[in-house]
């Protein structure tokens, strides 16, 4: 019977032989690359583990499909690099463009696209977030709540993990939750004993290549995955610091949650096919939340050609939260990544702690000074003046800089500060002054080399001093921590901005969280840039910046909220964090960006997360699977593909248009192309009462001058038995300024303020 079933399942693929035309050109001369073949939802409606026969049948089906397009003389390519079999179906393999094109036309295939290479995008930070709750509460510091999170499993898809870090100590942790079905993969440098009751699982994936490579390890060689995992759920570690800076007790947002590590990145990037495999495995393994601090360098061109978007849609269908970084391509608009509405997208902001390095120009004091050397003036030759200006490796004459403090101007975003520090050390410089023309200053690892970073105003003074003195000298004083810094938070310069693509009718990013100078666990490296201060061991904690660091803050916050509000769904947690977010800094004025201007929702989303306040949001916007499916309809996907992706008989609404995307029950509103001469545009939203059963909420609109925004009804009254009510918001832009207009609609009772941000593009 099983053999007959297998044959029937193979028949749809056998007919593909007759559809393929093999060109006369030698197949060895045709370019080949890894492709992802996405085939929609798994036939399993839940997470019942497939038995071995099910898995083998699926694998055989995919191999048969592959063999139908790959010439027999190239049998070495008949191999699945990755095989998706739990929450969704598909595989990745080495294909030519024509083979990929042929597969894309198959009835059982939703999309075929090249395997993309994606890029990687704390002591005080959690205290800073807790301090934003007014009045102050102790909930976050109550171990009762944190221990309730011990069955919350967080999957971190990143560069792996360093299991020896104190942040992953399992002291005080109970038994591993029974829902966990994952593994701890072994390798020569990673044993099963490295996993424990805290770090309960670790997987790694080989990089897609024409040469099959099963080697690998779950160990983190870069430190990025270790840093993000410890930020999300690291246990309490006292006396943590980066060589004395940012000292205190390090902990994650949910210190008693479990961690499962999925290594998909190596130096040079992250395979999209491996990310898709990791999401599929994480869903099967039993995680509650997936944290992904990875993204494309620009916005997705198509939701069904993005591995994170595809995998997260299936995770959402099974109630698994997927939280992602927004990207580090700011401050330019249209740079935000991970924009699908079912993703929780996080921008980066500062906290109330800064670091200061003082530069003293000239002599006249007892402090030892060193000569200054401007990179442009000591180039190896005249053809490298531009590179030498920014101190690019290999462009500076070592003989002219030895024993001096090197001065560089930032002009090359690809050449990182870490590389410049290492380069200055290699040419025996006595220090490095880094002039950041764009004022995008944030702390970096610097080791023993004296280092200072200044903005363009101070930088101009340094260059003017060099040019006006025959023997310019300077001293760089040791870096010190500046506590209680104001204003904070501020949207980080590098944080990617909206509007999002491919549709502007979803407001992205969703929220902001600490992502500048975040102290968390790293890989101790004796060969680190700049060396190690005398008498010190390699650092086990370090300061890192990026939306990669902001993402796990929201991950930890979501795990914390889930541990307290056990019955809340993913969309309820997301809504609570968005509608209670902070839009004021610690001076009591509106949040600003790095230029000092008021931050808008395309920079900060709904604002800075306030996890304690999110425990009691009053009202939530429940975004359902049907909302996401309608979104796909409105966006333009066919009914056939949507059914394949969801394994349902879902029908699109009769009217489907991109203009209707704003109507899905999302906790924010974005409207593109509002014609000032056109009709009033209206959206409908539904809120669910999670506060007092008897409550009345009054709406208040904060809109820019000229944009007419009205809410109907203006009052929502909840009584026993009624927990859901709807309202409509209308927008009319006849008198509004051209371009994006930002504002908010806030529902308030005597205890709660539920703020929904909006962005309306008037043309």
From TrEMBL:
It holds the Pfam family fn3_6. The active site is at 158 (charge relay system), 224 (charge relay system), 548 (charge relay system). Residues 150-607 form the Peptidase S8/S53 domain. Residues 1-27 form the signal peptide. PROSITE patterns: SUBTILASE, SUBTILASE_SER. Residues 206-225 are annotated as: Disordered. One of its GO terms (biological process) is proteolysis. Belongs to the peptidase S8 family. This is Uncharacterized protein.
